[in-house]
Design goal:
The protein has a single domain, classed as Aldolase class I (TIM Barrel), CATH 3.20.20. The protein is 32% helix and 18% strand. It has 9 helices and 12 strands. The strands form 2 sheets. The chain has an 8-stranded parallel sheet.
Length: 282
């Protein structure tokens, strides 16, 4: 085994870019919600000096259309599938997980517990994980927000509730103003911030969670090179997901994989996974 390279949910459409998806160790879908969603009003994306803001708002076809149209098409790509699951209550998450339970070709369900562009479910992350766990036998990963003071406590809670792994981290809420009008550049005002500026935050979150729970961690947040990936592995990640970089460099998965291997060897590790957690050593 080695460090798997995935995409961050919403940063790649495998059906329009199957060649890119084929270079991943697993493809993570855009977040699925029970009902169709039009998403947030435009403008939805704004570049900033050190990253990107997005306010898509979980736009999607809904669960029924995903099951009958999208999922069969994704299966034909012959890439392991992770389904990103979203909702506005624990019941929404449980409903989707129950419908997907036993569906062939699905490797993991990733519970999107932290989208900054929509209203949050009233239940805690642990309560949502518990509801999903009771509804499915699929492997569950909890995707957490960096916008919390004690992410390690949340990690402990979701693992105790039945999460098999963690995805760290989602975007963090940010705002960009038009230099001429001084008004928000996004239609919704704020959006989810990703890119290079998120990387030290993601690194801190992975480090904190890996120190308190013994589960696999998919790390993401500003990863653009093999060095960035190795840093996250050293902090405790077992896999790495690429997000914003895919918009400018669609061949990044293969490049980052090769760079990661070279970086690990330069540090004396034959396999990048052997460097996992070295930053946790005292």
């Amino acid at each position: 085994m080695t460090v798997a390279i995935l995409n961050a949910s919403g940063c790649l459409d495998a059906l329009t870019a199957p060649a890119v998806a084929s270079t991943l160790d697993a493809f993570v879908t855009k977040t699925i919600t029970p009902e169709p969603r039009e998403g947030n009003p435009p403008v939805r994306i704004a570049e900033t000096e050190h990253g990107m803001l997005n306010s898509i708002g979980l736009q999607g076809p809904g669960l029924d259309a995903f099951m009958t149209q999208t999922l069969p098409a994704l299966r034909r790509l012959d890439v392991p599938l992770w389904i990103s699951v979203g909702g506005f209550s624990a019941g929404d998450y449980a409903e989707i997980c129950a419908r997907l339970d036993g569906e062939p070709g699905i490797e993991t369900l990733e519970l999107n517990l932290s989208c900054p562009n929509v209203e949050e479910a009233p239940e805690s992350a642990a309560e949502i994980v518990a509801a999903a766990r009771s509804a499915t036998s699929h492997e569950l990963y909890a995707k957490l927000s960096p916008a919390t003071w004690d992410i390690a406590a949340i990690a402990r809670a979701v693992v105790a509730a039945g999460a098999d792994g963690l995805s760290l981290v989602n975007t963090i809420r940010g705002l960009a103003l038009d230099p001429q009008t001084l008004r928000p550049r996004l239609g919704r005002g704020v959006g989810g911030y990703s890119g290079p500026a998120l990387r030290p935050i993601a690194l801190a979150c992975v480090h904190a969670c890996a120190g308190v729970v013994d589960v696999p961690i998919v790390a993401m947040g500003g990863v653009a090179t093999g060095k960035h990936a190795l840093d996250l592995v050293a902090a405790g990640a077992t896999a790495v997901a690429l997000g914003t970089i895919l918009f400018s460099d669609p061949v990044a998965p293969g490049r980052v994989r090769a760079e990661l291997r070279a970086e690990a060897e330069a540090h004396g590790y034959e396999n990048p996974l052997l460097a996992r957690g070295v930053a946790l050593s005292k």
